[in-house]
Amino acid sequence: MTIKLFTIPYSGSSAAIYLKWRTLLPANIEVVPLEFPGRGKRFGSKLCDSMESLIDDLVQHLGSQLQGSPYALYGHSLGGLAAYELSVRLLESGQALPEHVFFSGCNPPHLRYGEEQLHKLPDELFLQEILKLGGTAQELVNHSELMRVFLPIIKADYRIYELYAGNGRRVKLPVDCTVMVGTDDPLMPAENGIEWEQYISGSMKIKNLPGGHFFIHDRQDDVIAAIQDALAVHK
Question: Can you give the residue ranges of the Thioesterase domain (predicted)?
Fold first, then answer.
């Protein structure tokens, strides 16, 4: 049986980061990258400025591609929080829930990785801060044209996270989940993974992977193996 795997990007990235997964995962797992407004094929559309507006957008685009198929969600960092809030929105509106949710490199809503409002910093200081995390920030520093295009996107995503409060809710999702943790992730201490138990009433598995916040790239083979293992029931 085929299952659709809807993937949600992290701050500043696009659906393109998941395209390679289509060749790495077996044919019964159909990778469907969800694109945030303002990037990729949706470049030029208005950026979301809050978690609520982002979920409004994701609900619309998810619904147009479900077609009654079983599905799972994978989100990394900001994408993980979006996967949770998307699932809550679907639960509360009585829509079909995912078979499995992957929370990757993502603290649960009640645990923050800093109270700074980085999105309010001048561009140069903002870049200095995100450079500490790795990822693609260095490319922005080295290419002024890239910076002009992508810096507003990254700042908008940081704004979503930094203003997101989770509404103080701890809605338990009746779904199975896998929490993926980078053992050297400065944004998500390994011990935070178990805290997702407060948001899940289904089964939960924690997968610790060597690496920092971007283990999604550095340990791609391990991430793919964990996805296959979790979705093996759909073979």
Answer: 4-230
Report how far residue 202's alpha carbon sits from residue 194's, in angstroms, rounded to the nearest whole number: 14
User: What is this structure's pTM?
Assistant: 0.90
Angle 123-131/144-163 helices, nearest 10 degrees? 80
Name the percent of the chain in helix, strand, coil, to the closest 5.
45, 15, 35
Give the whole-angstrom CA distance, residue 182 versus residue 14: 21
Measured CA to CA, the distance from residue 165 to residue 173 in angstroms comes to 18
What would the pLDDT profile of 60-100 be if each residue is shown by its tens digit? Answer: 989 878 878 899 999 999 999 999 999 999 999 999 999 99
How does pLDDT run across 31-55, given as a tens digit for each residue?
999 999 998 889 888 999 899 999 9
CA-to-CA dists, residue 208 to 169, 181, 194, 205, angstroms: 26, 5, 11, 10
Contact status, residue 178 vs residue 100, Cβ threshold 8 Å = yes
